[in-house]
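Hypothesis: this fold can be encoded by more than one sequence.
Test: take the structure tokens below, design a sequence, compare later.
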């Protein structure tokens, strides 16, 4: 797939973020004992980069506190940005989002990350294949990688619940016809993946993040501003309420 200059700029910016965030921010952490261990998994939309752009994690964390849920974000990475306290609690900084991460890079890292964090009960699989699209990587490879990532998660915990995004698009001025076709094809394929990969003990649930999403929710070509983070967090919370252990 040919990319326009703007797409290449967007991809380059994601790769730069990835280069700036090396593995030095990962360290051994005590495995969580929460009844709802939540792994936010993905790339820069998970990681965030305050004050330039937001992750949905903070807004979702506040929603979960408001709902009085027992939960714990897990991941080998620690958010280094500053967040205000909320209702007397400090933000849970753990996550597994790496700026610029492609599906292949996530696949290569997931087993080692799980070894460090322990098995999650719930995975929030954010924008799978998004950076593959921006970098013009083969669509078929992205789909295979996504399925393989889910296989590893389910092998690690046969009872895991995996939420997989039908991802929100980038800003309209970078969405060429080729990129739009890629996104729309992937959005449909996520439904197939969710159906095919669900088992009797492990649900894979697709979440529509694109309907109603617009340019006013983006801080730049592809990343969320506060309104976008709230939009994504609300979509997650609406379905999480149905699977969280009380």
């Amino acid at each position: 797939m040919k990319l326009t200059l703007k797409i290449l700029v967007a991809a380059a910016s994601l790769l730069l973020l990835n280069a700036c965030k090396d593995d030095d921010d990962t360290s051994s952490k005590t495995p969580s004992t929460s009844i709802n261990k939540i792994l936010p998994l993905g790339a820069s939309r998970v990681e965030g980069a305050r004050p330039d752009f937001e992750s949905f994690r903070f807004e979702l964390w506040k929603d979960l506190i408001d709902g009085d849920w027992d939960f714990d974000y897990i991941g080998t990475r620690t958010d280094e940005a500053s967040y205000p306290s909320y209702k007397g609690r400090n933000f849970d900084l753990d996550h597994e989002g790496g700026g610029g991460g492609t599906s292949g890079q996530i696949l290569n890292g997931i087993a080692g990350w799980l070894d460090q964090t322990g098995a999650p009960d719930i995975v929030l699989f954010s924008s799978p294949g998004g950076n593959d699209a921006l970098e013009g990587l083969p669509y078929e490879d992205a789909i295979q990688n996504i399925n393989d990532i889910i296989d590893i998660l389910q092998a690690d915990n046969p009872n895991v619940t995996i939420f997989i995004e039908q991802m929100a698009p980038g800003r309209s001025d970078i969405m060429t016809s080729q990129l739009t076709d890629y996104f729309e094809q992937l959005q449909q394929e996520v439904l197939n993946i969710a159906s095919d990969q669900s088992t009797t003990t492990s649900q894979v649930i697709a979440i529509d993040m694109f309907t109603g999403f617009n340019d006013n929710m983006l801080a730049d070509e592809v990343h969320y501003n506060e309104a976008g983070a709230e939009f994504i967090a609300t979509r997650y919370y609406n379905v999480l309420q149905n699977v969280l252990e009380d």
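The two ends are 46 Å apart (CA to CA). The mean pLDDT is 91.
Hypothesis status: open.
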